[in-house]
């Protein structure tokens, strides 16, 4: 399987790996319109803002997807140590929001 093209700052968020049409539209609704916007915030702050606006989206798959988006890898191919990093942030945000 060929590796996806590396996005540039002006790449629309909906064209970034791991970002589907629904997630892309939701990210745009909170002001994240390009890969550059996403990269500038980082995956942790993006996830925090995104799941504040869309609380039902707080899950490990979304965490892994955002992290994979910045690394330009499909979330299914994420190394286990990075998955653990995503799980930890997801758990922390869930705990804070109880």
How would you characterize this protein structure?
The protein is mainly alpha-helical and 98 residues long. The chain has a single domain (13-96), classed as Orthogonal Bundle (DNA polymerase, domain 1). Helix content is 58%, strand content 0%. The chain has four helices and no strands. The longest helix is centred in the middle third of the chain and has 19 residues, at 35-53.
- Name of the top-level CATH class: Mainly Alpha
Could you tell me the radius of gyration in angstroms?
13 Å
Q: How many separate domains make up the residues?
A: 1
Largest sheet composition: none
| CATH A-level architecture | Orthogonal Bundle
Distance between the termini: 41 Å
Low-confidence stretches: none
Q: Name the shape in a single word.
A: globular
CATH superfamily (homologous) name:
5' to 3' exonuclease, C-terminal subdomain
State the secondary-structure class.
Answer: mainly alpha
Number of helices: 4
Please estimate the helix content.
55-70%
Q: Could you list some keywords that capture this structure?
A:
single chain, 98 residues, mainly alpha, DNA polymerase, domain 1, 4 helices, 0% strand
Q: What is shown here, in short?
A:
With 98 residues, this protein is an all-alpha fold. It has helices at residues 21-29, 35-53, 60-71, 80-96.
SSE layout:
Blueprint: H1 21-29, H2 35-53, H3 60-71, H4 80-96
